[in-house]
Amino acid sequence: MQKLLSSIIVLFVMAGCSLQPATTKLNTTPSWIVNPNQNGKIGAVGSSMITYDQKRSTQRKLAITRALDELSLQRGVKVQMSMTKEESYTNGNTNTHMNVEASYDVREEITAHIEDVYEDKISKELFIWMVLD
User: Fold this and answer.
1) Residue 7 maps to a domain
2) Where in the sequence is the domain holding 102, given as residue range(s)?
3) Taking a C-beta distance cutoff of 8 angstroms, is the pair 112, 24 a contact?
């Protein structure tokens, strides 16, 4: 009986070793992150980590702003940006408010659209590819 049990265990071990590991889809980075000018399109990439307020919408706005700033620089537009952050502490509660203002010296109008969006699943960094219209 003990030999039979040992034989069965050996068979299970051998069967388990012969199985191929399951293929997993790797988190591959899109090529436009490194090269935003593709297929005749003039583009730029903006990225953002998770922001102070942990809101996805704030992270997205910051990535879009960074992509637009990059496109503006490529087209020779002057960009001035100021950020003010106010924090208050009342009765154990912290309130944070951030105000972002940007001014552009535009000699030509820039119109662009979001071509693609990618989020790194590990770092949660958001990448937005914007392309000139």
Assistant:
1) no
2) 32-132
3) no
